[in-house]
Amino acid sequence: MEGIQSIKQRFEIIGNDPKLNRAIEKAIQVAPTDISVLVTGESGVGKESLPKIIHSLSHRKHAKYIAVNCGAIPEGTIDSELFGHEKGAFTGATSTRSGYFEVADGGTIFLDEVGELPLTTQVRLLRVLENGEFLKVGSSQVQKTDVRIVAATNIKMFEAIKKEKFREDLYYRLSTVEINIPPLRERQDDIHLLFRKFASDFGTKYKMPTIRLEDDARELLLKYRWPGNIRQLRNIAEQVSVLEEKRSISAFTLNGYLPSASSSNLPAVIGGNEKKEGDFSNEREILYKVLFDMKGDLNDLKKLTLELLKNNDSEKVQEENESLIRKIYRSEEEEIPQQESKPLEVLQLPEIHEEPIAHQPIQEDKYHFAEEIQEEETLSLQEKEIELIKKSLERNRGKRKAAAAELGISERTLYRKIKQYDL
Q1: Are 51 and 110 in contact (CB under 8 A)?
Q2: Rounded distance, CA 405 to CA 390, Å?
Q3: Please, which residues have CB within 8 angstroms of residue 303's CB and are 6 or more apart in sequence?
Q4: Most buried of 192, 261, 359, 393, CB within 10 angstroms?
């Protein structure tokens, strides 16, 4: 069995990180078997190298090795690509076609981005893993195949399973052995080594002197998070090699090639769009709250005034309705702090004139006063409501459904109000 260093040289893998070495070691150990392998890791970390290692060290090395990018094949044709189809199975199927599983019989299939497979295709793949059987599209004849499956993905599989985007049983069949490749930011000692290798390659390719990083540029290289991993590092090295005239690169120069380098380590804002309870998001809600508060104060004032008219005894009414009086006049108490310690008797109540009450029955005054207050309040609220409805209809260009949603009422209620107010 070949050692890790010889495998690195053979497949041009650069780096001495312990996690990377462990991943290569697991690939070497599992290669002689027919166990299914799942390679995980972020995009750009070099997941495609491990399936090649596994195939080249297996007893299938003389058979075919086919790499399939599952994310690049349209959902409607992926079954045909993997399993083949019969003539006339669908529009455009002018001849019988063999799929990858039939062509690679006896060899290895590398399914890259396996997490992007549609659920129907996942069911077909599960059957191949369980008993090596598959059906061509449009065929009823079961065919057998003997392939080694190595899959790779950059998504979090357990989250995909939780969201029902990936079958749990298929995951456990694919991940008999799971190999994780660490991201570049966790391989600090390998970053500059990889950059030097890429810079040397591009210098030779474009026939120009190899670029060299100054100390401050090397520090910036190590601090950057590299979301695109090795693929991004390679692209940066190529850009700098081609575009810079000076062969000695400073941190200032390198920073111009690193997207969002200044904010790469800043924490992300989570849940910033969530609306907190009690937080008004528009003027309509604020206006409604003010109107409802005014309505409550008016009702309290009516109740207190009617009590005064009935009893004609301000001291008794004040004593029995102490809490109500404090509620009504709380704004005055808050605005004048020095009056907070004064007794309740200093609060100014509406004056009661006894002469009009003596000439008119109390009952008539009561109903007359209540009727006037109710009429004024109803008109005020009605006018505000009509104004709100008109503005909402104008903003939504007469679309009642959108206006109803904005006002927070049902479309049926809005229609009834439009008919009521003749809008």
Answers
A1: yes
A2: 14
A3: 324
A4: 393
pLDDT of residue 200: 95
- Please give the pLDDT value at position 346: 43
- Amino acid, single-letter form, for residue 368: H
Q: What are phi and psi of 149, to 5 degrees?
A: -105, 125
Q: Are strands 37-40 and 148-153 parallel, antiparallel or unpaired?
A: parallel
Q: Which residue has the higher pLDDT, 349 or 411?
A: 411
Report yes or no: 94 and 80 within 8 Å, Cβ to Cβ. Answer: no
User: What count of other Cβ atoms lies within 10 Å of the Cβ of residue 148?
Assistant: 24
Number of neighbours of residue 186 by Cβ within 10 angstroms: 12
Task: Please tell me whether the overall predicted TM-score, pTM, comes out greater than 0.70 for this model.
Answer: no
How is residue 54 written in tokens? 């596994």
Strand partners, 67: 110
Q: Residue 405's pLDDT band (boundaries 50, 70, 90)?
A: confident
What SS3 state is found at 251?
A: helix
Q: Residue 154 in contact with residue 43, Cβ under 8 Å?
A: yes
